[in-house]
Amino acid sequence: MLSKFPYLRQDFLASIVVFLVAVPLCVGVAVASGVPAELGLVTGIVGGIVTGLMRGSSLQVSGPAAGLTVLVFEAVSEFGVGTLGVIVLCAGLLQLAMGFAKIGRWFRAISVSVVEGMLCGIGLVIIADQIYAAVGLKAPETGIGKLVGLPGAFADAVRSTEALASLAIGAGTIAVIVLWKKMPKAVQSVPGALAAVILATVTTLAFGLPVATVQVEGLLGAVQVPTGEAFGELTNPAIWGTIIAFALIASAESLFSAAAVDRLHDGPRTEYNKEMIAQGTGNTVCGLLGALPMTAVIVRSSANVAAGAKTKASRVLHGVWLLLFAAAMPWALALIPIPALAGILVHAGFKLIPFRQIAALWRGHKGEALILIATAVSIVAVNMFEGVLIGLALSVVKTAWEASHVKLEVIDKGAGPIQAYLSGNATFLRLPKILDSLESLPQDRPVELDLSGLHHLDHACRTALETWAERHSAVGTEPVKVTEVGAEAVSAA
């Protein structure tokens, strides 16, 4: 047995650690997403057993992710919990199509500043949203509303004993997670988030605090297989934007996580297209069960590697433990205080904000830093999907601008023709600058325009230069002589 599975002991121990990390996160993400807590466990189970068995990235672990909480909550608010399964199912099928079309590796081409900006924006919204949950209040609908309303929420908490007790549990949870890393190594074998939830639960029960706890429906009761009515929502054009957002953001998060996990170990490297297929399969199954969407989760994945996992057996076993827990101990979920889960997610949201990356980008690449900030602000101000699109558009514009370096050198010897040399990449982005310089040349002097130094000349620039040459030649001077790339001088008019 051991000769057939040489790493069974290491993988078994790692699976226990990942299971303990996953339980509070699965439940917390589900509650924050506005769905039954058990659906978070269902996604964790599918991520472990189904996706875990497939090829792609051998050591990264999949499940419900804090990074999709905002998007899922918006989808549930707009379309209802019953339609969530259809959205996740279609997103999974779209991921499968992208995987089979070998698009997975292209996700590595997405600007890192856009991805970091996406995580930053998500983190800010999660923090604001979960502060309301910690106080026991309903959060405003918009990201801006959440941030602006925080002072009022704290003011309401001060005037209410119940709200203060709830806030204290949430703040205490965060404090335990942060301070847990300073505990002895033996104590740290229990994950900080799990320890914080246990302490919060014991404190709430021991002192009889008036704090809301998780509502439990049972594993089978929470599963909602999509109905015909739910599939009928696919005729609504608005739902397709959400489906595309689920597929693209979940894929990007999973594949960027895979790249990060590869840097943590010396084992087999990620096969990106196969990982995309694995994620798509997992989300298809989650959709059929009406559960939350899944991504690869860096917190669980790094815990898996740090715990000494060697093969995919560790993540599969963690899914088995989640299944046994959800089936045998659902009553334990009903004891968990909601503000404790809010505290876990506030801490998770804070970790999504890339403070070091922003500082490093600002020092070396201010343009990239501005794209990161603009993406984050757009997500908070508008929504996640449109915020990411804005970030991608800014990234494309910046790249195009930087790629269109062009230099115009004018030589005027006082007599004879004026010589103008263009070199670099002449695109429409630099056209105003080029035309301003050419139109400032004397109208009563012949001009020789040398384009042989250009690497690229787009159609807009060519047309504009031809039009300028015709106008310049129309005032009675000699026709503008244009030297094309690899050609002799020719008259423009």
In brief, what are we looking at here?
The chain is an alpha/beta fold and 493 residues long. 64% of the residues lie in helices and 7% in strands.
What does this molecule look like?
With about 500 residues, this protein is of the alpha/beta class. The chain has two domains: about 10-395, no CATH class; about 405-490, 2-Layer Sandwich (Transcription Regulator spoIIAA). The chain has 22 helices and seven strands. The strands form two sheets. A five-stranded mixed β-sheet has the order 3-4-5-6-7, covered by helices on one side. It has a two-stranded antiparallel ribbon with strand order 1-2. β4 (about 420-425), α21 and β5 form a beta-alpha-beta unit. The longest helix is centred in the N-terminal third of the chain and has 26 residues, at about 10-35. The chain is elongated. The termini are far apart. Residues about 485-493 have low confidence and may be disordered.
CA-based shape: elongated
Indicate the proportion of strand residues: 5-15%
Instruction: Provide mean pLDDT, rounded.
Output: 86
Q: What radius of gyration results from the CA coordinates?
A: 29 Å
Which structural class do you get from the secondary structure elements?
Answer: alpha/beta
User: Low-confidence segments, ≥5 residues, pLDDT <50?
Assistant: 487-493
Question: What's the total count of β strands?
Answer: 7
> How many structural units, i.e. domains?
2
How far is the N terminus from the C terminus?
86 Å
What is the H-and-E element order? HHEHHHHHHHHHHHEHHHHHHHEEHEHEE
User: What proportion of the residues is helical, as a percent range?
Assistant: 55-70%
Count of DSSP helices?
Answer: 22
Largest sheet: 5 strands, mixed
Strand order of the largest sheet: 3-4-5-6-7
